[in-house]
Design goal:
This protein is mostly beta strands. β9 and β10 form a beta hairpin. The longest helix has 12 residues.
Length: about 300
């Protein structure tokens, strides 16, 4: 039996974190699923709470009990009801097991074993969907735990490899990045060391993105290529591979491939390294970060 995590925040046990996309002309909705009944012994109903962070990186809304999600059910939520203007926002849905609320002394924290947290998070993905009034919609399934939470780990990092940057006269790709935390008085910036390689493996652009706590950004790759590589888009699609190392924090990335003429998009996530190797953590992850820092295209921006 693994050691319990003491005084763990109830609102951090199971979260779904999204960003809205008014900046690109889309509304946002989510589908939350509860498949905890498919876990071994952790079936529960959820109380759904909500936190909204605005463009000033501060909490604009904290709402308790926006919905009840029974085991084996799902719910569709239109996020427009929590927006007040056209600025993009971070919305965190807190799926709080009702049975744990009943045993919490202060209804804010609880002692819990890590295997229960991972069982509840891993039972299902949730769905974020970007849509327009004319009926177009596109979305992606993913899962996320509480990011940058010192009850889980003291050191955080992010590794991204995305060979799906598509650029042409009419196509562009953005990287959406969300930076949040459940650690009290968290102030650390996330420093994203970014590199774009062309199909020949040559580095054509490199830069550092600074993402403040509770900030959502969009990285525009067509703009970066024009500025750094004197790149001129053509009718034919040109493909690039993105590498990102963030040694300071965990961030949540989504790749957004857009058609600028049709005003449509396709959203994709990038799986974290643990999906490819269960031991990519601790000392192995630190060694990986050190090795990456010595690669020619990272060396001068990771020092």
């Amino acid at each position: 039996m693994s050691a319990a995590l003491h005084d763990f925040r109830l609102d951090a046990i199971h979260t779904f974190q999204i960003r809205t996309l008014r900046s690109l002309g889309f509304h946002t909705r989510v589908t939350l699923l509860n498949k905890s009944d498919e876990t071994h012994g952790f079936a529960c109903d959820y109380q759904i709470d909500l936190t909204v962070y605005g463009p000033q990186q501060t909490a604009e809304k904290k709402i308790t009990g926006i919905a009840h999600l029974a085991a084996g059910t799902s719910i569709l939520l239109d996020c427009r009801q929590w927006e007040s203007d056209d600025a993009d926002r971070i919305i965190i849905f807190h799926l709080i097991p009702t049975r744990l609320q009943n045993i919490s002394q202060d209804r804010q924290t609880v002692d819990i074993e890590p295997k229960q947290i991972w069982a509840l998070i891993g039972a299902q993905d949730h769905y974020v969907e970007y849509f327009r009034d004319d009926g177009f919609a596109s979305g992606v399934l993913y899962q996320c735990g509480a990011m940058n939470y010192d009850k889980v780990a003291k050191d955080w990092s992010t590794l991204i490899q995305a060979p799906k940057i598509c650029i042409s006269n009419t196509l562009n790709t953005y990287l959406s990045v969300i930076h949040t935390s459940f650690t009290t008085n968290y102030t650390k910036d996330a420093r994203l060391h970014c590199v774009l390689l062309n199909p020949d493996g040559h580095c054509v652009a490199k830069w550092i993105e600074i993402v403040s706590p509770f900030q959502a950004i969009l990285i525009d790759f067509k703009k970066i290529l024009r500025e750094q590589a004197a790149f001129r888009p053509a009718d034919d699609v040109q493909f690039f591979t993105l590498y990102v190392v963030c040694p300071d924090a965990t961030v949540l990335p989504l790749v957004l491939n857009t058609d600028e003429v049709q005003q449509t998009l396709a959203a994709e996530h990038s799986l974290p390294p643990i999906y490819y190797g269960k031991k990519i953590g601790g000392a192995t992850r630190l060694a990986t970060l050190r090795e990456l820092s010595q690669l020619p295209f990272f060396k001068d921006i990771l020092q």
